[in-house]
Amino acid sequence: MPQNSFPAIHGHRGCRGLRPENTLPAFRHALALGVDVLELDVVVSADRQVVVSHEPWFSGTICRTPAGLPIELATERQHNLYELPYDVIRQYDCGLTRHPGFPEQHSERAYKPLLSEVFQDAESYAESLGRSPVGYSIEVKSSVLGDGVFHPAPPEFLALVLAEISAAEVGERVTLLSFDKRILQVARELFPQLPLCLLVEDERPAEEHLQELGFLPTVYGMHHPLLTSQLAKFLRDRGVASVPWTVNELTDMHRILTLEPAGITTDYPDRLLALRH
């Protein structure tokens, strides 16, 4: 739990500003730093394995083929994880090429892990550090246009993800996130006790988003410039927690802290941890 009512610190894709995103090195480093929550994204492979990855394809910005060759941005979607078995996915590298937007990122060989592997490694590593168990914010990467192309339809997608959460026995520390309201609606039916977070990045009123969703989620996760004192009050009055993303600059961190969110998602948890300490 966060200390002294300080918002929970969510390590975005582990700690993307410091280690290759959504990889075991990123999650381990975030745990060692002291994050409260590991934020990560999940997609599905051809053999229906739940893979930790932001895109359902291999990004030309950070990934290399099994032969070690760079991936052209124009053809990256041809490296579709939904069409590849996991044993092939594992052969790609997504850690040696530093993301150009994160000059502090330490490059190292890294693959896209399975969600089950992340759970197992994070739980054992946290225990070895002698720290309290970590929370998990798991974003299901889904869209209407992606159904059957980059991922299964929501019922199958969620069944696969929920099975992994159940098998790892970490359900009490998981929040399920999505921009796709269908995912959250199906999740509420399949696993009603699981906390849900609606992700929002547009300027439409929160009331409209919540009406479309059809229920009040546990968390409203907005792009951080959208969080104002008015929105913070609107959500607080309805019992909905706010967790803005992705807050990386100190000036933005200071502004967001004045609005007393439940959590803050950042690529640089070290910066936010320094403010907490």
Strand content: 15-25%
Helix content: 25-40%
Query: How does the helix and strand content classify structurally?
Result: alpha/beta
The structural domain count equals 1
Structural notes for this entry:
GO terms for molecular function: phosphoric diester hydrolase activity. Residues 7-276 form the GP-PDE domain. InterPro entries: GP_PDE_dom, PLC-like_Pdiesterase_TIM-brl. It comes from Hymenobacter taeanensis. This is Glycerophosphodiester phosphodiesterase. By secondary structure, the chain is an alpha/beta fold. The chain has a single domain, classed as TIM Barrel (Alpha-Beta Barrel), CATH 3.20.20. 32% of the residues lie in helices and 15% in strands. It has helices spanning 24-33, 86-89, 115-129, 154-168, 181-190, 206-213, 229-237, 250-258, 269-276; strands at 8-12, 37-44, 50-52, 135-140, 174-178, 196-200, 219-222, 241-242, 263-266. Strands 1, 2, 3, 4, 5, 6, 7, 8 and 9 form a 9-stranded mixed beta sheet that branches. Strand 5 (174-178), helix 5 (181-190) and strand 6 (196-200) form a beta-alpha-beta unit. It is globular. The relative contact order is 0.15. The model has no long low-confidence stretch (mean pLDDT 97).
